[in-house]
Amino acid sequence: MQRSPGLPFHPVVGDAALIAEMRARLSGLPVFDLYSFYLQPDTDVQSFAPAMELGASFGARYATVMGADEDWSRQRDNFAETCDLAAQFGLVCALEFARIRPLA
User: Fold this and answer.
1) Contact between 41 and 69 (Cβ < 8 Å)
2) DSSP string of 48-88?
3) How far apart are CA 37 and CA 52, in angstroms?
4) Can you spell out the DSSP letters for 21-49?
5) Which of 20, 35, 58, 77 stands 20 to 30 A from 93 (CA)?
6) Cα separation of 24 and 47, whole Å?
7) Is the pLDDT of residue 100 over 90?
8) Reduced to 3 states, what is the DSSP secondary structure of residue 93?
9) What angle do CA 35, 63, 83 make, to 5 degrees?
10) For the chain, what is the mean pLDDT?
11) pLDDT-based confidence at 104, cuts 50/70/90?
12) What pLDDT sits at residue 84?
């Protein structure tokens, strides 16, 4: 749902045909988490909203967040803002402590 740095990205948000196909294929299957929301130095947390809203509409319960910012205060503040945003869509943020990211 959301671009991950350094990985291929196939946009879903705004692609009505793809969203309809995903809904059809997910019929009856639970969706647990959205992967993943990176907190980088230039993160605009509000840009996560469309992906979170769409993921929540699929029934997702968690938004996976990765910390990729070495400024701990900014990362903390962005994480708090991300949690607040996720809550607006009924999501809970889960941190992934990937060894390749500063948050690990």
Assistant:
1) yes
2) GHHHHHHHHHTT--EEEEEE--S-HHHHHHHHHHHHHHHHH
3) 10
4) HHHHHHTT----EEEEEEE-TT--GGGGH
5) 20
6) 26
7) no
8) strand
9) 140
10) 92
11) low
12) 98
* Triad 9, 51, 18: Cα angle to 5°: 65
Hey, what amino acid is at 47?
A: S
User: Token pair 């607040």 is at which residue?
Assistant: 84
Contact between 73 and 43 (Cβ < 8 Å): no
Judge whether 41 and 75 are in contact, CB under 8 Å.
no
Please tell me the predicted confidence (pLDDT) of residue 66: 92
Q: How far is CA 98 from the centre of its chain?
A: 15
